[in-house]
């Protein structure tokens, strides 16, 4: 999804912080602030610096405090005066009602699927990643599977209409909606996932696992092997879930999704208030949003987890798409009940951090990576848009007749 927007004013050059000693790091960031003229320059530059480091760092609390100590200022809203057309507090009213209605009628959702021969796919699509969607659907499509596709609310109606014109989008087991606007690290991404889980649980009971994917993912091995692996691990969550430091971390600060001039962004509001911690989870966990969950886990998240009570907490948390589901599961009875975690099944080509303004992100695979992808112990890869590589991979899993490769 789109990157958060920051002011166009001059920013300091990135400086690599070395050493593990906190005091040394505090001194270095203080020197960085001073050398960049932040102490005597624009307050917005200081706020940008704190926001950028807080988003990138796993444990940024010391960094924020170090800057505060040298400025005697509190970090407030780094986004300035913005509109609030897509604030989660307003967007999630209907989602809260929907999830409560589902819970009130929980008897309609069995604890175990009636059939296990299908897979559910929860797809997130944004404007820049639509070219490969028909080919991806054509590769994955089986009548016994369930598909729920969310088009980002910022996508143009023309683009969405063109995609929906594909024959495969009109199949009865393919649903699509355009509800929430997403941005990098914003709460709406987490709620889109919860909405998708609701829809897929409602759609039928013929799937054993649900896989969250983007439209620039593509299978790299025969899908029959993937289906066999899922059937052999009916109670396995395919996600790398790890517990975080609950004292330090960006989750100890409050954030808000805002909308301005056609873009959504994440705004830093400052340290958490006591009120925002009322429904906070006991411990924080982290994984990728691109996971594979068994039916029982998806059902628990929607029907039994404390997600509704924690809605305001997650609305003020940075990058909840990588924290909310992992944290709910990490604090669930399953964490102590022998439920298994497994490494993710998708290969990602992570590129170096580069400029401090750019968070780490997946690089594109190309045809030169074909042999590496085929030999990897994974079933999927992202990001892939190279037409030559896509054609080579389609030789492994041919397109469904409903879709043309053209």
TrEMBL record:
Keywords: Disulfide bond, Endoplasmic reticulum, Glycoprotein, Glycosyltransferase, Golgi apparatus, Membrane, Metal-binding, Signal-anchor, Transferase, Transmembrane, Transmembrane helix. Pathway: Glycan metabolism; heparan sulfate biosynthesis; Glycan metabolism; chondroitin sulfate biosynthesis. The keyword Protein transport does not apply. One of its GO terms (cellular component) is Golgi membrane. It is a single-pass type II membrane protein. GO terms for molecular function: metal ion binding; protein xylosyltransferase activity. Its main location: endoplasmic reticulum. It catalyses: UDP-alpha-D-xylose + L-seryl-[protein] = 3-O-(beta-D-xylosyl)-L-seryl-[protein] + UDP + H(+). Its EC number is 2.4.2.26. GO terms for biological process: chondroitin sulfate proteoglycan biosynthetic process; heparan sulfate proteoglycan biosynthetic process. It holds the Pfam family Branch. It is found in: Endoplasmic reticulum membrane; Golgi apparatus membrane. InterPro entries: Glyco_trans_14, XYLT. Belongs to the glycosyltransferase 14 family. XylT subfamily. This is protein xylosyltransferase. It comes from Eutreptiella gymnastica.
